[in-house]
Amino acid sequence: MVVTAQPLILDHAVVGVLDWLDEAAAIYRKLGFALTPRGYHTLGSINHLAVFGENYLELLGFPPDSDGKRADLWSYPIGLNGLAFRTTDAASLQRELADAGKPVTEWRDFSRPVDVGGVEKSANFRTFQIGKEAISNGRFFFCQHNTPELVWQPRNQSHPNGVLDIVDVFIVSRAPQTPTELLGGFANIAASDINSDGIAIRAGTVTLHILSEVDAASRFGPSIPTDFDGNERKVALGLKVRSLEATADVLAQGGFSPRAFEDGLLVDAGAANGVALWFKE
To answer: To which H or E segment does residue 173 belong?
Structure first.
């Protein structure tokens, strides 16, 4: 049943790094990502972004002297622990999902300063979570960009490793009905595609793959995290690149030894802050 006219579109993927943002940023620069300058949220968290064409990757942490701000982030494992879906109207979407019986939090506003040509401007957001108590090891949430031009700046969208966009997200789940029910009812989701590779949900240009532990182990082997409590763990990202040969050169220069994987290259989660990265053309 369709519960909203808004589509389901992945806006960004969050890699949680706790109070290790300096170290994580250094690793991702060696992986060939051009990161934005450090951002300071009014909520107390800090970040760097790798901005692509349609979406972006966020390294999210908090300063050691955060005084308990964003205490919720402490409970999530290091790695891919957040998926943000885009909305043009968070308040109305939150109301529609609540009316449909889906568990959602109240929306909240926050911001962070952004330097644009020496002028400080404020990037503003409105977000809310869905399935806060149902999702393990992280969160699903919706993000309204009030100032998208401050995030998608052309100067930040060219990466030495040639990444153009996130195109896949892999989630290992012991209870696949939980994420599928939470994400059902959007205008562009007719039904989940169930096949031999698990469950596939289209979220704009990105495919969410929900796999069993057995299928994930068979496909990825030891390259993904396996030690998780609860029902879900987000374990890998598929990244579309301009040239796989050029990507391989950048990874080698950064000291990485990816393995060949399904016509692409796979960097193990242990080398990329808890999330496996699959680079492919």
So the answer is: strand 163-173
For residue 156, count other CB atoms closer than 10 A to its CB. Answer: 17
Could you report the per-residue pLDDT of 186-213, keeping only the tens digit for each?
A: 987 755 666 667 899 999 999 999 999 9
62-84 pLDDT tens trace: 887 766 566 677 789 999 999 99
Task: Please calculate the CA angle 170-173-178 and round it to the nearest 5 degrees.
Answer: 110
Domain 163-280: what homologous superfamily? 2,3-Dihydroxybiphenyl 1,2-Dioxygenase, domain 1 (3.10.180.10)
Contact present, 251 and 245 (Cβ < 8 Å): no
What is 10-156's CATH topology?
2,3-Dihydroxybiphenyl 1,2-Dioxygenase; domain 1 (3.10.180)
CA distance 281 to 241: 5
